[in-house]
Amino acid sequence: MSNRKKLQPGLKLALGFMLLIAIGALLLYLPISHQDGVDVKFIDALFVSTSAICVTGLTPVDISQTLSVFGSTVLMLLIQIGGLGYAVVAVLIIRLASGRIDAFSGNLLRDSWGADHRVGTKRILTVALSITGIFEFIGAISLFTVFSPHYPLGRAIYLSVFHSVSAFNNAGFDLFSDSMMKWNDNPVALITIALLIALGGLGFILYNDIIEHVRNKKKITVHTKIVLSTTIFLIAAGTVLFRIVLPGIDWKNAFFQSVTTRTAGYFSYDQTMLTPAGVALTIILMFIGASPGSTGGGVKTTSFFTAVKASFSLLLGRNPKAFKREISSDSIMKAFFVIIISVLLVALATLLLTITDPQFTSDKLLYEVVSAYATVGLTMGVTPSVSFAGKIILILMMFLGRVGFMTIISAFARKRSESARYIEEKVIIG
Questions:
Q1: How is the chain split into domains, by residue range?
Q2: Which of 69-78, 81-90, 141-150, 193-202 is the least confident region?
Q3: Considering all CA atoms of the chain, what is the largest pairwise distance in Å, rounded to the nearest integer?
């Protein structure tokens, strides 16, 4: 067996992301990527590259004042690659080079999204590229109507394409220095960006399911129902709560804040002006994040839904069910595992940042860590002033958040041994 086939899909994905980050860092470090008279440290180039590949949006430098057109174009390509995922890009290259997709590459692609292995590789690839192209094209046209009255034609087109790509891939990078603050009274701009974020966060698995339902009259899967219902609930609840807890915010900006906190990173409301309740609500929504197989991060809507369902079912003494289907114990275990490990990682990273960057309050550091791990990109002003060690911590959190802790574990996990079994013992809980 070749060495390529000996590599676990999880390890191959992790290494692929690392390679892309390294290439991106080198490109962004080149003088041609910077505006005249601007010097960028390599650690900052590495940070921005990681943030782009992990579709986060955190940056220690002002992108609009630092990167040249070449540099921002490199950034946009990194965002696009990061949003689609390493596996999609790798399989697409293999497809174009050889005209075929081997079994190993197909499994890599399906594993990267958690898709059923009965789903055809070409099918997944086609859906991902088609959906991405269609939504980004429509988004760019809509944004062009916003930007064209304020910028020359070429610049308006570039801004429209860049922000459409950034929004759909839940990256949150902008070329305005203040995100969407200058457009917070423009409903077309806010709704377009918000819809792109939400649509990118639903996941390509869901789109494939809906297409199969329309074409072949197949039943909508429980996964799709959970994703849609949870997403709608979180956006609606977040909108109402932000309208209540944030002073002076109107409904359209409360809606935008609710959507963007779920892994996008754009903001139309000054994040340094958030009330304590606003900070807490934002952290909760960031932590939950988007859905599996999407361009977003977080512990995912399905993990949140499964954990809540299982918890209430346990309290009521019932088997956890959803949409007339019983949720498997394996799914419940994975959901709680992802949530618990994520909480521990966030707590550890926050603790380390309080040591490396004691000049910031713990709530701001927690906000920053959750934003990095959930690949959101919102900041309360910490990122531009964080120390070298702090940047390394945030880089690691972005990487873990995008690749997925389950992927990292599967890359090194061995098959369960059945050679020895032990007597089961109950542990007193509570």
A1: 3-409
A2: 81-90
A3: 74
pTM: predicted TM-score of the whole model, two decimal places: 0.87
For residue 257, what are the contacts with CB-CB under 8 A and spacing of at least 6? 238, 239, 242, 246, 249, 267, 268, 269, 282
Per residue in 128-180, pLDDT (tens digit) is 889 999 999 999 999 999 999 999 999 999 999 999 999 999 898 999 988 89
Q: Are the C-beta atoms of 29 and 42 separated by less than 8 Å?
A: yes
Cβ-contact 184, 271 below 8 angstroms: no
Q: Could you give the CA distance from residue 209 to residue 215 in angstroms, rounded to a whole number?
A: 10
Q: Is 334 exposed, middle or buried (0-12, 13-18, 19+ CB in 10 A)?
A: middle
What is the number of other CB atoms lying within 10 angstroms of the CB of residue 354?
A: 14
Find how far residue 50's CA is from the centre of its chain.
Answer: 12
154's CB contacts (< 8 A; 6+ apart) are none
**What would the 3-class secondary structure string for the chain be?**
CCHHHHCCHHHHHHHHHHHHHHHHHHHHHCHHHECCCCCCCHHHHHHHHHHHHCCCCCCCCCHHHHECHHHHHHHHHHHHHHHHCHHHHHHHHHHHHHCCCCHHHHHHHHHHHCCCCCCCHHHHHHHHHHHHHHHHHHHHHHHHHHHCCCCCHHHHHHHHHHHHHHHHCCCCCCCCCCCCHHHCCCHHHHHHHHHHHHHHCCCHHHHHHHHHHHHHCCCCCHHHHHHHHHHHHHHHHHHHHHHHHCCCCCHHHHHHHHHHCCCCCCCCCCHHHCCHHHHHHHHHHHHHCCCCCCCCCCCCHHHHHHHHHHHHHHHHCCCCEECCEECCHHHHHHHHHHHHHHHHHHHHHHHHHHHHCCCCCHHHHHHHHHHHHCCCCCCCCCHHHCCHHHHHHHHHHHHHHHHCHHHHHHHHCCCCCCCCCCCCCCCCCC
- For 72-83, how does the pLDDT look when each residue is reduced to its tens digit (9 = 90+)? 999 999 999 888
Residue 377 makes CB contacts below 8 A (sequence gap 6+) with: 51, 56, 57, 58, 171, 172, 173, 264, 265, 266, 371
